[in-house]
Design goal:
Layout lengths: L4 H12 L12 E2 L5 E10 L2 E10 L1 E2 L2 E2 L5 E4 L2 E6 L2 E6 L4 E8 L5 E9 L4 E9 L2 E7 L6 E6 L4 E5 L12 E10 L2 E9 L10 E7 L4 E8 L19 E3 L5 E5 L8 E5 L12 E2 H5 L3 E8 L2 E7 L19 E7 L4 E5 L14 E3 L4 E6 L8 E6 L5 E7 L3 E7 L2
Parallel strand pairs: 5-30
Antiparallel strand pairs: 1-4, 2-3, 2-31, 3-6, 7-8, 8-9, 9-10, 11-12, 12-13, 13-14, 15-16, 16-17, 17-18, 19-20, 20-21, 21-22, 23-24, 24-25, 25-26, 27-28, 28-29, 29-30
């Protein structure tokens, strides 16, 4: 892209930091069968930030502080699998930390692995309790795809991606992971030494899970590129999702006169469906990022009300600006019913995510322009009503999960 991946990270880093010190506020708790909810927030101001990982016994209410949190330096990407949370803080070596939680919701690190020479782990896809894949980025370098055992937190192999490297690409970023049948689908973005796309296309590399080898690479030129990563275990505006029928939908970003839009790889195929393209620019009126999928009738994207801020949440002077809304979309009809909550504060798109714990509500993250806007909002599945559930005193939320 014209603005490179480093800018993306610095932007996300800056917008997540809405407080400068650990907050000591007490947290009202309403126990629900002693369930523990894990949360992560990042506070501070660039370049000095702190990420707080903590649990809450019972569904969170009120305004949450971080007095019970495990602290780590810098911003972080977080992933969830079962009873554990996984966190990667920015900085070399790229390290994935595994956390578990005690009966009081206190987070404790129980394992980690590191990849030397690179700076962050952008996507993690869990195949089983003992098998997972992770993309690793270096910024200005060619990244890696590693396979690891989540139980022991040991790297078992590094996937050979030499066959999908391109002449002239000095930076390669692996954007999002999803698995279906015996293939791991991995988005790829190729950039030249100036930080521009080598080609304005959506690229996906397929890895044979059994052999751990590259099977093929597919491409589509109807949208510009994949960006922003995301997996079924992450808290991001995902670039790939798999629906109940087994179809994979892929988010392409707007750039260089191409629209943001959604592509499809149908169940039973490993190629893009040439008959399907959902042009989000035309449908919503503005560029969008991410697909938030829960069922055929509950699919959402993140719309930028100000196209200038797309997709880095920056205005023309490179200042952070929150301009986004959640839009409900229909993947089959290729339509939108508009914003789910026009009254919700505008938020930073790169911090967007949504989660579901039961059949009653969805929960949407709102990372706003000031500390008072940082909150989790609920969306009633029965009638679409939206309301604020709880606030976050120490920064914007970058993970919210109910632990199994």
């Amino acid at each position: 892209m014209k603005k490179n991946y480093v800018l993306t990270l610095l932007t996300v880093t800056a917008l997540l930091m809405q407080a400068c010190k650990k907050d000591q506020k007490t947290q009202p708790k309403t126990p629900d069968a002693a369930s523990t909810y894990a949360l992560s927030v990042t506070g501070g101001s660039y370049p000095t930030q702190t990420t707080y990982m903590f649990g809450n016994v019972g569904f969170p209410t009120g305004t949450l502080g971080t007095s019970n949190a495990a602290e780590s330096p810098s911003t972080a990407l977080v992933f969830h699998n079962g009873k554990n949370m996984y966190q990667c803080n920015f900085g070399a070596p790229a390290t994935l930390h595994k956390f578990e939680f005690d009966a009081n919701g206190k987070a404790k690190e129980v394992g980690s692995f590191a990849v030397a020479g690179l700076k962050t782990i952008g996507a993690v896809d869990f195949i089983s309790e003992t098998d997972a894949f992770a993309t690793v980025a270096g910024y200005g370098l060619v990244g890696k795809l590693v396979r690891f055992n989540p139980s022991t937190m040991t790297i078992t192999s590094t996937i050979d991606l030499s066959s999908v490297q391109k002449t002239g690409s000095t930076e390669v970023y692996y954007q999002g992971l999803i698995h279906r049948d015996n293939y791991l689908y991995m988005g790829v973005n190729y950039q030249d030494k100036k930080g521009n796309n080598l080609e304005d296309k959506v690229f996906i590399t397929l890895i044979d899970i059994t052999t751990g080898k590259v099977a093929k690479q597919i491409e589509d030129n109807r949208s510009s590129e994949m960006w922003n990563s995301g997996t079924e275990s992450s808290f991001q505006p995902n670039v790939m999702i798999k629906d109940a029928a087994g179809d994979i939908y892929v988010m392409g970003y707007a750039n260089n006169n191409k629209p943001s839009g959604i592509l499809r790889i149908k169940k039973g195929s490993t190629d893009f469906d040439t008959s399907y393209f959902f042009d989000l620019n035309s449908t919503t009126g503005k560029p969008c990022i991410g697909i938030l999928y829960f069922s055929a009738g509950q699919v959402f994207t993140v719309r930028y009300d100000d196209a200038v801020a797309y997709p880095f949440d920056l205005d023309a002077s490179y200042n952070s600006v929150a301009t986004c809304q959640y839009y409900k979309i229909d993947l089959n009809a290729k339509t939108t019913s508009g914003s789910i909550a026009p009254g919700m504060p505008k938020f930073f798109g790169n911090a967007a995510f949504a989660v579901k714990f039961d059949d009653n509500k969805l929960y949407f993250n709102c990372a706003g322009a000031d500390a008072s806007s940082n909150a989790i909002y609920s969306y009633q599945l029965s009638n679409g009503a939206v309301s604020k559930e709880f606030g976050l005193a120490s920064g914007a939320c970058n993970a919210f999960a109910k632990l199994n």
